[in-house]
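Researcher: Here's a chain I'd like modeled. Treat it as a single chain, no partners, no ligands.
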Amino acid sequence: MKNRTKWFNDRIKKRIYRNQLEGLDLKVYRQGVIITDLQHANFVYLCESKANTAGYILRYFSTIEERDLFEKLL
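Model: Modeled as a single isolated chain. C-alpha cells:
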C-alpha cells in the first residue's frame, strides 16, 4: 500500500477525517485530526491498516464530504 502511505505523508500539516467506528473518539470524527509530522503520518497509516486487517472498516479522508459519502455507501 505504498500509495496509501504516500497519501498520509502528503497530508502532513493538513486536517484529515475518518469514518465513525464504535469505540473511537467522537471528537476526532467530528473535527478531524491534523497530521503533525512524518511519524504521526506513519502512525495513522498503521492504525488504519491494522484495523482493516482485523476486519474493521476504518478509512481516512481529505474532506468531510468524502467521509460522509463513504459512510452512506456502507
